[in-house]
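Reminder to self: tokens first, then the designed residues, so the page reads top to bottom the way the pipeline ran.
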């Protein structure tokens, strides 16, 4: 297989990561779907105790990661800023990635 043939399947996408309070997980999942996320990975994580509230418990955070087109990532980041940042502990960021199975990340 030539070098050019091996890389034909690569596509540019964005890896979007959202880390949030676990208490908003279900609502956040519904919003992510509404904003165009079709598949993601959810992990339970622990956060920094600084600024914690009484209701915070160990492992009370979720980390959601998905590979999406840039337009979807922008829509999600804007939606998070509007709906969550003022009331909940949420951090979100993205960065470019290359994927091989381009049809899985549309």
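Designed residues (106 positions):
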């Amino acid at each position: 297989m030539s070098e050019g043939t091996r890389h034909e399947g690569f596509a540019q996408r964005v890896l979007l990561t959202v880390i949030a309070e676990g208490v908003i997980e279900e609502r956040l999942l519904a919003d992510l779907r509404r904003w165009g996320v079709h598949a993601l990975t959810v992990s339970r994580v622990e956060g920094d105790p600084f600024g914690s509230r009484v209701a915070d418990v160990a492992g009370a955070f979720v980390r959601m990661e998905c590979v999406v087109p840039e337009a979807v990532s922008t829509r999600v980041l804007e939606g998070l800023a509007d709906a969550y940042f003022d009331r909940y502990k949420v951090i979100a960021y993205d960065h470019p990635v290359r994927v091989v199975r381009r049809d899985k990340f549309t």
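Strands lie at 11-21, 41-45, 61-68, 90-99.
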